[in-house]
Design brief:
The protein is built from six helices and six strands, in the order H-H-H-H-H-E-E-E-E-E-E-H. The two termini are about 50 Å apart. Helix 2 (about 25-40) packs across helix 3 (about 40-60) and helix 3 (about 40-60) runs antiparallel to helix 4 (about 75-115). A hairpin with a 2-residue loop joins strand 5 (about 210-220) and strand 6 (about 220-230). The protein has two domains: about 15-115, no CATH class; about 120-240, Phosphorylase Kinase, domain 1, CATH 3.30.200. The chain has helices at about 15-20, 25-40, 40-60, 75-115, 120-135, 235-240; strands at about 160-165, 175-180, 185-195, 200-210, 210-220, 220-230. With about 240 residues, the chain is of the alpha+beta class. Keywords: Membrane, Transmembrane, Transmembrane helix.
Length: about 240
């Protein structure tokens, strides 16, 4: 198979990933893909899975170019041909079934990867929500809402005033919760599915100007708690949500 020829810095596609797993991607393109995989562990695991699957298929079904053992003469040769003729439809059916499973796995893997929201994207969304809330603050008289899926933070003085689903891409979604503390300061909580991300149950903090972000990954979900760095209850919210 001819190596895939595409500009080395062109956007990566699913075809590039499959070609890389098959060993048919051009060297320059493969180097570009490896750099990308170093920055995205989830994609790296998916590509490694495809590579192993490809090796298993090649071991199970050798290519037609490999030399076949010499057939026996006489009746044994005739019987062998007869058995081969009978086995060929079964073999084709088996190969067809296996290929269908492989294609389905690839499609599912591609869909799964497309639905995943990176931590950076979730952080960006939290900052945007916080900016929107600052531009149009919730009045102190805003009613306290009740949502079964919302973290219960009333014990630390945070009450839920808004809940919605954010669209971060064609297939990417995140759940947004907005809380107010006793000083009417907002605390934003975003969560999204992270089926491919490694667990990081202990929260870590980063600061962007006056905004503090507390992030962690647990129970196949990414979380970020965002608010002004001086907002009361911000870090306590992360503590409560990460308690075992």
């Amino acid at each position: 198979m001819k190596p895939t020829d595409a500009p080395a810095d062109a956007p990566l596609s699913e075809a590039d990933i499959q070609a890389y797993a098959d060993g048919t991607l051009s060297p320059a393109r493969a180097a570009f893909l490896r750099d990308y995989l170093l920055r995205d562990p989830a994609e790296a695991r998916r590509v490694a899975f495809y590579g192993k699957l490809n090796e298993q298929i090649q071991r199970t079904f050798p290519s037609a170019g490999e030399p076949a053992p010499k057939a026996f003469k006489g009746r044994r040769e005739v019987r062998s041909r007869g058995r081969t003729a009978l086995a060929t439809p079964r073999l084709r059916k088996t190969i067809g079934t296996l290929l269908a499973v492989v294609i389905a796995c690839m499609a599912a893997g591609g869909w799964l990867a497309a639905t995943q929201v990176t931590q950076q994207a979730l952080n960006n969304a939290a900052v945007m929500v916080l900016a929107e809330t600052a531009a149009a603050p919730f009045p102190a008289s805003s009613p306290t809402r009740s949502a079964p899926s919302a973290p219960d933070l009333e014990a630390i003085g945070l009450r839920l005033v808004d809940e919605r689903v954010l669209s971060l891409g064609v297939l990417q979604r995140a759940t947004e919760f907005i809380y107010l503390n006793g000083d009417n300061q907002p605390v934003v909580v975003l969560s999204t599915l992270a089926l491919l991300a490694p667990a990081q149950p202990q929260w870590s903090a980063r600061r962007i100007g006056d905004v503090r972000l507390l992030t962690w990954t647990a129970q196949r979900q990414r979380f970020v708690v965002a608010g002004n760095a001086r907002t009361h209850g911000l870090m306590r919210a992360a503590d409560v949500m990460t308690m075992p």
